[in-house]
Amino acid sequence: MTCELKPVHDSADWASWHAIRERVLWEARGEFGVYDRNHPSLQSPGHFPFLLLRGADPIGAITVEIVGSQAWLRRVAIREDAQGRGHGRTMVQLALAFAGRKRCTGASSNVHPDAVGFYEKLGFRVTKENPEHGPRMSIEL
């Protein structure tokens, strides 16, 4: 089944997007009750939140932040029951294609240390060690 990257628009999209992020990026790492569904950065100019849909089923969440000619991939998450099937790779590739259409020349992400190998397989390389936010990984577009 084909996947597509869908911009988050309505309340159902936002609910799915938040649920995926909260579960995968916070609760699965033991952080309960700290996720902020109203964090100010979520509505900042240059932030583009997306859902990865498999058919009509939301299975992933990502934000692409455009800063000048650089894209930042923020909080990349695939629902746990959909992990290990290439959906993360698809979502990142679709996000990079979006960044290219926005005339970005590169993309970066501060990644969880466990995700370094995943990003390396996609062509990213570590460009800065950052103990507080995870290694920064970057790729030219």
Summarize the structure.
The chain contains three helices and seven strands; from the N terminus they run βαβββαβαββ.
Residue windows where pLDDT falls under 50 for at least 5 positions: none
Number of helices: 3
Q: In sequence order, what are the helices and strands, one letter per element?
A: EHEEEHEHEE
| Count of folded domains | 1
Please give a structural write-up.
The chain is α+β, with helices and mostly antiparallel strands and 141 residues long. The protein has a single domain (3-140), classed as Gcn5-related N-acetyltransferase (GNAT) (Aminopeptidase). The chain has three helices and seven strands; from the N terminus they run E-H-E-E-E-H-E-H-E-E. The protein has a seven-stranded mixed sheet, with helices on both faces. Strand 2 (47-54) and strand 3 form a beta hairpin. The chain is globular and about 35 Å long. The mean pLDDT is 93.
Topology:
Elements: E1 3-7, H1 11-26, E2 47-54, E3 57-67, E4 70-78, H2 87-101, E5 106-110, H3 116-121, E6 125-128, E7 136-140
Parallel strand pairs: 4-5
Antiparallel strand pairs: 1-2, 2-3, 3-4, 5-7, 6-7
